[in-house]
Amino acid sequence: MATAELKHLIKMVNQISKNIATDESEQAVIDKTTIHIQRFWAGSMKRDIMHYVERDGRGLEPLALSAVRQLTKPRT
């Protein structure tokens, strides 16, 4: 079961991806959500949501889930 803090992070990622989704391709939403998390989230928040996705990931919308998974990929 997710803690209150983790539930808040899940809600935030879902909201970010939904707000970006207007007239954007799925990949653009994923990329922009990932960039937002990289730029504006504290390291502890990023670690918590990435760890959650590794363990479970339930509650995240598909595009939000993909964005968090993309955080773990090496940058090119």
From TrEMBL:
InterPro entries: Formate_DH_dsu. This is Formate dehydrogenase. It comes from marine gamma proteobacterium HTCC2143.
